[in-house]
Structure formats: structure tokens, C-alpha cells
Amino acid sequence: MLWIVRCCLRLCVCALGCGVPSTPPQVSGLKIVNGQNAVSGSWPWQVSLQDTSGFHFCGGSLISQNWVVTAAHCLVTPGRHQVILSEHDRQFNAEPIQVKSISRAITHPYYNSQNFKNDVTLLKLSSPVQITSRVSSVCLASSSTSFPSGTRCVTTGWGKTGTTCEWPHNPAQCKQYWGQSRITDAMICAGGTTNCNVSTPAVSSRATYLRGWIGQTVASN
């Protein structure tokens, strides 16, 4: 199932006056692990990245009919991997999904796999998606956008729902843990790590910082 939280994580994709789904989402809670099942179809830009056997390994966001943004550490490979849209329950086979192959995977040229700086990859689809009530794109915030403290942002994806953990961490706590120099303006810290260690802040990419590269790459490809 999809789960959602109030923290802005992973690629920090937040809709600003656009990306409005046909089915209104319901948002509550504060966690990723032990989060909340989403209303089916209420996050129409959420995609599942799967191999050709149907194994789900990462998520992503549809930003146009031809492009998906995901994390570079997902290591997406055209031919081996595909984009699934309109999926909600991955154990239910009757959903009206769209399956798209990937023609190009373009990773940020300065992605650093050691500290995950510039952790972003753009996926160009082999053919445009069909926009429906369950499939539509999210609008990325501009490079100059700033989010006031307390702004509610939402993370969507597939994850554990049965473990109580993962509380947000503020930037000071994150820098104290990882080191002042390792946390840059391209990163956001919130939530715990995948092993539910709440004392270990997770580090994610900040989409506003990467927005210029995303726009230039889409325009030139």
C-alpha cells in the first residue's frame, strides 16, 4: 500500500498550486514507517520503479508526460527497469496501471554516492503517459521557493506500516550526527533510517536546489 507522512523527504517534491489530484488525499500522522495508507488514486504522480519481473525497488514522481524524477542511488537502468503508474496495492492485479519503458536515465553529473550529494536521476520515458484521473504530474517548486517553518509537505511511496519509529530530525540534529561539512544546501534531513534507528537521521535531496539542473536537462533532451 502507499503510505504518507507530513515530512518532506526523499526528493522533497511539494505541489504549489498545481499537481492537484482528482481524488482528494487524506493526510494525517507524522511518520514514514508506520505511516498511513493512502486513498487509492490520490497521489497520481507517484510511480513504482520495478524490474521486468515486477519487483519494486524504488519510487519516483511524474513531472511531465515524458519524465520521471527519482533518486540517483536507485541505479535505474533502461532495459532492465520500467515505470509503473496508477498502482496502489501491489498485491492487487486488477488495477488500471500503465507500464512504461525507459529510454534514458540521466543522473546528475556531480552525484556523489559516498555522501549522496546531488542524489537525483531523470528518467525519460519511451512514450508519453496517458493522463487520467489516476495519472497526472506534480509541479516542482522553483529554485527560489522557500518553505516557511511548519509548512506541511508529503512523502508518498511503499513502505513498512507495522513498526513504530521514524520521527523527524531538525537540521541541527542532522549536522551534529553526520558532521557539519557533510550536510549541504542540496540536502534535507528528516526521519530515521531504513532500519528504524530513530537516532540516525535520513538525508534526502532538496528539489529546489536541484530544480535548475532538472529544468535544463528536460529542455535539452
UniProtKB/TrEMBL annotation:
SMART domains per record: Tryp_SPc
Catalytic activity, EC: 3.4.21.1
Top-rank lineage group of the source organism: Eukaryota
GO CC annotations, alphabetized: extracellular region
Signal sequence extent: 1-29
Example GO molecular function: serine-type endopeptidase activity
UniProt-annotated location(s): Secreted, Extracellular space
Official protein name in the record: chymotrypsin
Organism lineage string: Eukaryota, Metazoa, Chordata, Craniata, Vertebrata
